[in-house]
Amino acid sequence: MPKxxxxxxxxxxxxxxxALQMVQMAKDTGKIRKGTNETTKAIERGxxxxxxxxxxxxxxxxxxxxPILCEERKVNYLYVPRKLDLGKSAGVDVGSAxxxxxxxxxxxxxxxxxxxxxxxxxxxxxxxx
Length: 129
What we know:
single chain, about 15% strand, four-stranded mixed β-sheet
């Protein structure tokens, strides 16, 4: 399947897996927002720490505004390959198009490391904020 038009950069597999682990950790010890609407509100309210967007969302217009909004508000974001994996890491049995970490909880230190990895990616051609 070709990449959707809203995908602005390639997220390395190991970074995507770390992000899924952080979503799970933040779900257990911090606070997350599930779904596109909740993610959009968190970004607009300035409480989003990291936005995770699924690549296999149909129709793609559901999440197409998120990268643009993240860039406007200077919120770090990345992509994961499957919405089902994203939903499971957030504790739901169905896929989720987007998840936002609002309070990282125990994922605070790993989140800082992940954000610095994303910034390195953006300097080498990819765009994270």
